Structure formats: C-alpha cells, structure tokens
Amino acid sequence: MTLFAPAPRRRSRSRTVGWVFVAGAVVLGLVASVLPSPYVIEMPGPVFNTIGTQRQGTGKDAKDVELIQVDGHRTYPTSGALDMLTVSVQGTATERPSWTSVVRALFTKSQAVVPASAIYPPGISTDQVNKQDAADMTNSQQSAVAAALIHQGYRIPTELEVGSIQDGSAAEGVVRTGDVVTAFDGKSLRTNADATTLRELVAEHGTSSPATVTVERDGATRELSLTPRSEQGTALIGVGVVEHYDFPFDVDIRLQDVGGPSAGMMFALGIIDEITPGKLNGGRHVAGTGTITADGEVGPIGGIRQKLYGAEAAGATVFLAPKTNCDEVVGHVPTGLDVYAVSTLDQAVTDLQTIAAGRSTAGLERCTT
Fold first, then answer.
1. Three-class SS state of 158
2. What are the two backbone dihedrals, phi and then psi, of residue 185, each rounded to the nearest 5 degrees?
3. Which of 36, 122, 137, 279 has the most CB atoms within 10 Å of its CB?
4. What residues pair up with 251 in beta bridges, in sequence order?
5. How far apart are CA 125 and CA 92, in angstroms?
C-alpha cells in the first residue's frame, strides 16, 4: 500500500508551488499599484469652443464668459463650434503614476505613456513648467490676434522688447532689458511684414564682424555695436525678445487655467469668425490644433492623438491638424472624424469655407491613408 504514498505528496508540492506563485503575483500587483514609475500619462483634456463660453468663478459668482471678446469692431453671430483641444497629464515633477496605471494606459487608445523628463525636465519644478505654459499661452493668444487681423488685411506694427540677456553673451553689457529693438544692421524689425526675423538676421551676419543693433531706450534711439558669438555653430547675440503688437482695436481672450501654445490657430479662426459676416464653419462642429505665428504659419504640437479623441468625444466631425503632425495622425483617426492637414491660417480658412459651403473636399489635403 505504501507504493501509492508518493502520489499525494507530489500533488501537495504542486499546490504549494502554485500558491507561492499566486502569492508572489499578488505581492507584485500590490507593489506595482503603489510603486511610482518614471513616466507620466497623457490623456484627452477639457475642450473649449473658442466662439463659445467658459464657466468661470465659483459658487454664486460663477458665470459663463465669452472666450473671445472684441471691443472697437463690429461682431457677427456665430454658431456651431471651433473647438480648441487640451491634453491632461497624470503625474508631476515629483509625483508619478503607478506602474499599474502605466500598463493600463498602454492598452488605452486615447492615452499615451511618455518619459516624465519630456514634460518635466530635470531640475525644473512643476510650478516652473506651469508658469512657462502660462507664458506660452499668453504669447500664443497675442500671435493669434495678430494673425487673424493680418489675414483680414490689417497692418499690425510690432515691437521687439528685450526680456532677457544671456550671461556671457555678446549682448551682455551692451543691450539692456526693456530695450526695444527696431533694426539690425539697418533692416527694420518694426512690423511683421518684414519676413526676416531677428534670429535669421543675426545668423546671416555671422560672427566675423561687429553688427549694429538699433534700439529705443528711455525715449531715445541708440545704435549699439556688438559682435555675435557662435553657439553650437549658430551666430547669436544672446537676447530673448518678446513681441508686442499695436492692434487697431481690442481683442481679449478670456480662457482660464489652460497653458501652452497649441491653441493659436483655433483662436485665430475664432477671431476671424467673430469679426466677419457669415459662419466660417457653416455652423458645423469643428475642432483643431496648431501653434500660430503672426504671419499665419501653423506649427506642430504635442499630444495630437489625445486631442483627436478629445474632439471625437466632444462631438466634432471635422478636425484641422498641422501638416507637420500628419505622420502621428495616420492610423489613429477616430471613427466619424475627418482630419484635414493645414500649414497656414489662409489654408485653414479656405478649407473651412469649402466645407461650410458644402463644396467638394476632394482637393483638400487630409491626414489619412
């Protein structure tokens, strides 16, 4: 009878080993649920209709505020939506999502896992990132106003004010913060009709001879001499400039608690829709994203896949995407969303007019296969 004794012992060992694996998996699962990862998770954020309103304030003081407010120019009725999209980030410079959240995000089409350092560079706090995002949003709004008005035929004078000077640069001790740069080597920088930027002029001048920088300081015009220096093979003078525009009427954008530069194109389209007769979108629900320069160039943005899903969830059927982001779009377009590639504000307006009029869109460039 003892010949049959080993069989139950083998079953007992198998069960013991199985329970060890189960217990180990449970422990690993518990650890993964709390152990922070070196990643953050991007997901669709709030959507805002640039020709609509945003709920602002708290409690009894809360009210709906128009995002675009124009004073000094006639405005016209709008309808439908020109949505700007945002991306929410789970995680901060010091607090990261758990590995469980990361794994879940990897299998969620509307989410993306990115290294935390891509959003929060080493040595940069969450507060610093938020402040930079706020500054980018402010600059983007000003560029959007300029682009919209230039598109409408206005000539918008600009000023390039020196906001910062790099230590050890060619400008240190020569240029001062607050100086308004009006020319470089005699070439005017007063209006955005000048196609050449200050950076391009400096690069063109090179580092072999002194350059003349004309500035306005304390009400007087001064011509300053300095020699650009090479940094990573590029001639630079070492100043950070901020563009200030002289608009013919007031356009105020009242968006709160959103940062970054990627709403520029949609703000510009919203402004054009507000100050021109008719409905630029034909009353349809349109969404889009893209940075904007004063001369109307539409630039790439981050998180476009999350914005596509945000647009779909908001009910949009048309999406305007920067042409330079198309490689990220192809194969990731939600059902029911037509994505058009644009590289300039003029093109975005023309595309919308074509769509609004119900004309054939066969000639429009799409970000799809």
1. strand
2. 55, 40
3. 137
4. 70
5. 9
